Structures are given as structure tokens and as C-alpha cells.
């Protein structure tokens, strides 16, 4: 989370998407990797760091599910859109 961030969100989804380039909206180098219809978001205040825990139940029905995580921060002046995004973090729930 950038030190100048006013607000940040952690997004979790289960439907990966090709990176939606946010450069044309004024955030060059930023992309959205999570399908907003499958996402759950948690708002986080403060910075420059935040910690959140996600509990995943030990259920056989979750084998093979892919979980995608991404952070988005509102940072005035960083670019024309005023946001920064993280890269995607992917977790495959498998039987290893």
C-alpha cells in the first residue's frame, strides 16, 4: 500500500480474467485481474501497510479452485485516474 494512499481494497475472486489494462483510463501500468462479478472486497484504511487473513475451509469440494487476489489503492496525484494496483496473486487449491 503506498504511503500516500487514502483508501485501499483487497479483492479476492475465483474467476480469472485477462488483465484489463487501465492505462486508457489514466492509470498506465495498472491492470485489473479479477472479474468483478466473482469478487469479494475488503476496504482497508491507513497505510503504508495492512494485513488481512483469509481462512479457506478444508473441504474436498474446493479442490481445483483458483483464488485470485489483488490490491487497489486510491492515491491522489499518482496518475490521472488516481489509483495504483498490485499484480495478481494466484493460489491454486490442489492436492499436493
What does this structure look like?
19% of the residues are buried. The mean pLDDT is 85. With 96 residues, the chain is an all-beta fold. The strands form two sheets. Strands 1, 4, 5, 6 and 7 form a five-stranded antiparallel beta sheet that branches. A two-stranded antiparallel ribbon has the order 2-3. It is built from no helices and seven strands.
Estimate the strand proportion. Answer: 35-45%
Order of helices and strands: EEEEEEE
Overall geometry comes to globular
Q: Give a count of the beta strands, DSSP E runs of length 2 or more.
A: 7
Taking the alpha carbons of the first and last residues, their distance comes to 32 Å
Rg from Cα: 15 Å
How much helical structure, as a percent, in the residues? under 10%
Mean of residue pLDDT values: 85
Please give the count of helices. 0
Low-confidence stretches: none
Outline:
The chain is mostly beta strands and 96 residues long. The protein contains no helices and seven strands.
Structural key phrases:
single chain, 96 residues, mainly beta, two-stranded antiparallel sheet, globular
Question: Strands, helices and their partners?
Answer:
Blueprint (H helix, E strand, L loop, with lengths): L6 E7 L2 E6 L9 E4 L5 E5 L21 E9 L8 E3 L3 E4 L4
Antiparallel strand pairs: 1-4, 1-5, 2-3, 5-6, 5-7
